[in-house]
Design brief:
Layout: H1 27-37, E1 42-46, E2 49-52, H2 53-69, E3 77-81, H3 86-97, E4 101-104, H4 111-121, E5 125-129, H5 130-135, E6 148-152, H6 163-166, E7 178-179, H7 180-187, E8 202-207, E9 217-221, H8 222-235, E10 245-246, H9 254-266, E11 271-273, H10 279-289, E12 293-296, H11 298-305, E13 320-323, H12 330-340, E14 344-350, E15 355-359, E16 379-380, E17 385-389, E18 402-407, H13 419-425, E19 431-439, E20 445-450, E21 455-457, E22 460-462, H14 464-472, E23 477-487, E24 491-500, H15 508-516, E25 527-530, H16 544-549
Parallel strand pairs: 1-11, 3-4, 3-5, 4-8, 5-6, 6-7, 10-11, 12-13, 13-14, 24-25
Antiparallel strand pairs: 1-2, 8-9, 14-15, 15-16, 17-18, 18-19, 19-20, 21-22, 23-24
Helix pairs in contact: 2-3, 2-7, 8-9, 11-12
Length: about 550
């Protein structure tokens, strides 16, 4: 038995047994149990619009009945090309009720990406925002298997039409499409026939970012979804006592799908949506709706703290706040606590682990490793074994650095239509994360960096995260990203891109000196470039590859 199988972290959970019962066989049963518990309770809030659980049930029934009447069959895929709007949730549940699989598509996807995702998934139905269909999907759909296009607007299900988000927007009716709401209304009141979903059936396809090749469709099963929703409820305290959950992460992303939608169905608790992330709109929604839980990238939280008009009161209703999707430094954690009065907790997972594989138990601040200065991303979730392995797949002793590998009920069954990639990245059903880190004897996991981002400077390994954490200690630094750049003498050398806090001033030379005083000679950046903004994914993760490409 290895150190990892002995689960030293169980002491952190008290007497919690290693087996963690999964309460529902499928996510649709989980949703229906929430409806039955209180049909009149609020399911979704969208600006001034409200949808109850019974209304959500009826709307998704109508969609499912319409899909089946138009040739949709069990196992078919329905692609969702939407922002954070109620139609996303309606489409997801409707797809399940018709026995299908939801395919979540990044609304920032353009022609090439959308074409690939629709063709790879074999989606036969597309639910799209009207503007996205007109601008992108119209030219893509004819070359795919899509037979039915349902278009909708971000103006639906609310009347406020905030000018900061919706200025100049108008309804568009494109030829060859059907209005989403009208389609549902045609079939509303018709209950679809019972569907027999199994735990191992695919609930949705979520596509990886494709940083090391083409995007791969992770097959998140119903078991995956229910299990991770329970982890959010029990270990993260999402929606405890029925408090509202705020959807700060994009719903198409695995964090939004589980940490917002799925857990809101399980608890059940209201889910608050605000179209897309705009800091002052989000702060206004906090003040109006008083949510008690959210999870998002630390970059999003930093944007809120730096938005004009921010006060500590904006976060006063929150009882639990978690950060995921991007690395968080000890400095950022302390800054968030000072600004809001709330401890931000860390969680870590991937698309292939259906959100969390490690979690900081609620109420237990993550420790900082005294050697690397890294903030822990938590301990393995219940029923989950996290190992640190070498390049040959052998377990390393606790404390040694290697690849993080996870095995548990949240790990996906594989990649859609890609058996070779499944065998390479999920050998024996355990996920090779591509992240490098270590576990201390108490079971806390620390991420060093992405394996592919390691810098080799004169034969020495330099992990960008460590340099970024040191830069974060400088009072003028808002965000930073460190990459390796070619160097004639060293092979590679360290370069930092830095954005500065509003009103602050600093020179590249001062930042280099700051790092030089605090790091080994081979680690500190030899050059610093000041930028207004760092490139990010829609989930707030900094795109180091774009900076390298420059």
């Amino acid at each position: 038995m290895s150190d990892y199988d002995q689960r030293p972290w169980l002491a952190l959970y008290g007497d919690q047994p290693p087996d963690y019962d999964i309460e529902f066989d499928d996510a649709l049963s989980m949703f229906r149990a929430g409806v039955a518990k209180d049909p009149g309770a609020v399911a979704l809030r969208y600006f001034d619009g409200v949808i109850t659980r019974q209304e959500l049930d009826e709307l998704s029934d109508g969609l499912a009945a319409g899909l089946l009447a138009n040739g949709f069959s069990p196992g078919d895929r329905l692609a969702v090309y939407l922002q954070n709007v109620p139609q996303f949730v309606i489409a997801m549940v409707g797809a399940w009720k018709a026995g299908g699989v939801m395919v979540s598509i990044n609304p920032m996807s353009r022609t090439r990406e959308l074409s690939y995702l629709l063709k790879d998934s074999g989606a036969t139905v597309l639910v799209s925002l009207e503007a996205l269909y007109e601008q992108v999907a119209r030219d893509v759909v004819p070359d795919t298997d899509v037979r039915l296009v349902l278009t909708t607007s971000e103006l639906e299900f609310q009347t406020r039409n905030d000018e900061r988000l919706f200025a100049g927007m108008e309804r568009i009716r494109s030829e060859g499409t059907t209005d989403f709401t009208e389609f549902i209304d045609q079939h509303r009141g018709t209950a679809p026939p019972p569907v027999d979903l199994k735990a191992d059936d695919v609930a949705f396809l979520t596509y990886t970012s494709g940083t090391t090749g083409v995007p791969k469709g992770a097959m998140n099963t119903h078991r995956n979804v229910v299990f991770t929703a329970q982890v959010y409820r029990d270990w993260v305290h999402a929606g405890q006592d029925g408090g509202a959950i705020f959807g700060i992460a994009p719903l198409f992303h695995i964090t939004g799908l589980i940490g917002h939608i799925a857990v809101s169905m399980l608890v059940p608790a209201p889910l608050i949506l605000a179209y897309r992330f705009e800091p002052q709109v989000v702060l206004d929604a906090f003040a109006e709706h008083r949510p008690t839980f959210t999870i998002g990238a630390i970059t999003a939280f930093n944007a809120l703290l730096n938005a004009p008009g921010f006060t500590k009161d904006h976060f006063s209703s929150f009882r639990s706040v978690y950060s995921g999707g991007a690395a968080i430094s000890p400095t950022a954690e302390k800054g968030f606590l000072a600004a809001t009065g709330i401890q931000v907790h860390n969680a870590y997972g991937l698309t292939e682990t259906t959100s969390p594989m490690t979690v900081t138990p609620f109420g237990s601040p993550s420790p900082v490793d005294p050697t690397s200065g890294a903030l822990s991303v938590g301990v393995p979730a219940p029923s989950t074994i996290v190992r640190i392995q070498d390049d040959e797949g052998q377990d390393l002793p606790l404390g040694e650095i290697g690849e993080i590998v996870a095995d548990g009920p949240q790990v996906v069954a594989g990649y859609w239509g890609k058996p070779d990639e499944t065998a390479a990245n999920l050998p024996g059903g355990a996920l090779k994360s591509g992240d490098v880190g270590f576990m201390n004897p108490e079971g806390w996991v620390f991420i060093v960096d992405r394996k592919k981002d390691m810098i080799n400077a004169s034969g020495y390994k330099v992990w960008p995260r460590e340099v970024e954490d040191v830069l974060a200690e400088h009072p003028a630094v808002r965000e930073s990203a460190v990459v390796g750049v070619p160097d004639e003498k060293r092979g590679e050398t360290v370069k930092a891109f830095v954005s500065v806090k509003p009103g602050a001033s600093v020179t590249p030379e001062e930042l280099i000196a700051h790092c030089k005083e605090r790091m080994a000679a081979y680690k500190y950046p030899r050059s610093v470039e000041l930028v207004d903004e760092l490139p990010k994914t829609v989930t707030g993760k900094i795109l180091r590859r774009e900076l390298r490409d420059q």
